[in-house]
Amino acid sequence: AIGEQYLPRTVSDKLPVSAVGGVLAILDKADLITACFLLGLEPTSSLDPYALRRSASAVAKITLEKRLSYPFSRLLEESRQALLPHVRLSAEQKLKASPQRLEAFFKDRFRALFIDRGFREALVNSVLASDCEALYSAYERLEALSRIVSQESFVQASKVVERTANILKGCKEELPREADASLFTEPLEGEVLKSYQTHEAGIREAKAGRDFARATSLYAGAFFAILNEFFDKVFINAEDPLVRRNRLTLLRNVKELYTRDIADLSKMQSNAAVREPAKKGERE
Fold first, then answer.
1. Which pTM was predicted?
2. Are 250 and 192 within 8 A, CB to CB?
3. Residue 26: which of 70, 71, 65, 58 has the closest Cα?
């Protein structure tokens, strides 16, 4: 395991064979990258003298090879907290060594690895824009969605996510956790909420069972038709601010039922197969 800690030494080198060696290699590389960021030695566009990009890619490769599930942000934060007492940081260094910058660096490496493995870039961006706290789970979602990307259920789910995301894009205010049925002024608002309540448990059950194809099919079936009618007949940005916020809350919950832990399919907008013009009430 101690010998395997340093694998892979090059891009084409073998990965650790033992489980303990794999875990030790991940910890070692996370420690190296975190330390370099804290010391202001992160890679630039042209220079990477400590091969940090290769180390980050190795973390991803080992994780996928060993099918390891662990909270990635916690790994980085524990490495960071362990090293902080040993370095003196200026305000600028603290900003550069923030957890967000570290996670963004790793996410870029994950994106490159997934694309190198043949996944389409738009789908990779969609999955990584959702929950990628557990890297192997993101890989599972990529594999599952890649198999259904041409199916009608995927196209319909993409349109639901894209249209709800578009209407929510300009919303800067904090929305309530749940929509209030007493504020509904249109029958279709109640129909959307009823569909959400009817199908939520089944969609969550499919997600928990890692059946992302079924979750996508259930999501499309629950919301594609009803939201087409909803956007045709209901103006989201109502003059009454309470009604408007309530409608936005309803749409946010519909969107996040899928995007929170499967994929933000609004990132698939570059794919013409899942695009469609905004309809009445969506322009703002």
1. 0.84
2. yes
3. 58
